[in-house]
Amino acid sequence: MDIPLVDLRAQHDQVADEVAEGWAEVLKTTAFIGGRQVAAFEEEFASYQGVAHCVGVGNGTDAIELALRALEVGPGDECVLPANTFIATAEAVARAGATPVLVDCVADTGLIDPSLVPAALSPRTRALLPVHLYGQAAPVEELRAFGVPIVEDAAQAQGARRHGVAVGGLGDLAATSFYPGKNLGAYGDGGAVLTSSEELAGAVRLLREHGSPRKYEHTVLGFNSRLDTLQAVVLSAKLRRLEGWNEARRAAADRYSAMLADVPGVVPPVVLEGNLPVWHLYVVRVAERDRVLKALHEAGIGAGIHYPTPVHLTGAFESLGHAPGDFPVAEAVAGEILSLPLFPEITPAQQERVVAALAGAVR
Predict the structure, then answer these.
(1) What is the mean pLDDT of residues 298-323?
(2) What pLDDT band is residue 187 in, cutting at 50, 70 and 90?
């Protein structure tokens, strides 16, 4: 594509020398697992997100599962989450042995609809999993009233804030992903669990290391899910630039919104009051989305869809027993959403070309 959905090369160019120097040090010491760079990044990221503890793990899906297991969620339990999310949110619940219970979303933001949560609660509910979708925070404060532990899915919202509080510190725990395309992305898979609870952080650390507080002593059944030292080097280098990159994303999102204000047939995204988003994705809504997407690709515009199928309509979760129409807002949104190219280095000229192509396709 002439204008990619995400430009990882431009981002790498800014950190290449620092990463190379850091990797050379890791190669010299051969501390590939649990090196000092991992602990340094965990401390830096916890401070950035305004929490006491960050526990690096293998990926974002593991992060959700380990957060749930730290809360002792397991077979027979239920966890409430939005139908409009990447499948990993529900997948992690199922991997922990619990049952995902879905609720619909709000059309203009795509975020979980708190007014529908009470009907989804039961005596078996052990956790709520609000998803900070596309780079803006879900209204976690409204979910607090239900008295259920909250695990934030913050994979798309590193640095986002709600009423001045950074995501990661809104719930009891938060899980994030460092997949390469995230606002803070590694050069491979990676993830982390955030919390201000020393007890919960300790439980996650134990679980990520085979349930072992020390070598060859295994007090619980655990996992092998650790953040690699090489990835920690990349993440530390990028973290020092993340605030600037997020500001650039906000500026680009503002330009898109201004350019699209008078384009008929395109519904720009809405920011929930109280949110400072980081615009992981800029998602508009259009009719005949698949036709419009094809036209954009033919014009060299790297648009995408996040996400085309709500959780309840995937084959993986047929066992939940849902049918089309059960979550009408999520289903309607899934048929219209379109992610436009957005990355910190995108230029106004590139955005003008994207908007021109989009306006032409919609017409």
Answers:
(1) 97
(2) very high
Mean pLDDT of 65-75: 98
In a domain, 96, yes or no: yes
Helix (H, G, I), strand (E, B) or coil at 258: helix
**Contact call for residues 153 and 173 (beta carbons, < 8 A):** no
Structure tokens at 261: 């204000």
My answer on whether 193 and 285 are in the same domain is: no
Q: 174: helix, coil or strand?
A: strand
Residue ranges making up the domain that contains 226? 8-102+110-237
Instruction: Please enumerate in sequence order all residues whose Cβ is within 8 A of that of 134, keeping only pairs 6 or more positions apart, or say none.
Output: 110, 156, 269, 277, 279, 280, 281, 282, 283, 306
CATH number of the domain where residue 252 is located: 3.90.1150.10
Do both 353 and 320 map to the same domain?
A: yes
Higher confidence at residue 150 or residue 1? 150
* Number of domains, the chain: 2
Bridging pattern class, strands 191-195 and 266-267: unpaired
Boundary of a domain, candidates 237, 260, 282: 237
Q: Are 279 and 134 in contact (CB under 8 A)?
A: yes
CB 194 within 8 A of CB 54: yes
Indicate which CATH number applies to the domain containing 204. 3.40.640.10
pLDDT tens column, 245-264:
999 999 999 999 999 999 99
Domain boundary among 217, 237, 257: 237
Show Cβ contacts of residue 311 under 8 Å, excluding neighbours closer than 6 positions.
81, 83, 84, 85, 87, 89, 90, 100, 102, 317
Q: Is residue 118 within 8 Å of 106, Cβ to Cβ? A: no
Q: Are 58 and 196 in a shared domain? A: yes
Confidence tier at 296 by pLDDT (50, 70, 90): very high
pTM score of the predicted model: 0.97
Q: Count CB neighbours of 135 within 10 A.
A: 29
Are the C-beta atoms of residues 99 and 68 closer than 8 Å to each other?
no
Q: Are 190 and 227 within 8 A, CB to CB? A: yes
Per-residue pLDDT tens over the stretch 20-37: 999 999 999 999 999 999
Query: Does residue 1 form part of some domain?
Result: no
Cβ burial, residue 214 (10 Å; 0-12/13-18/19+):
exposed
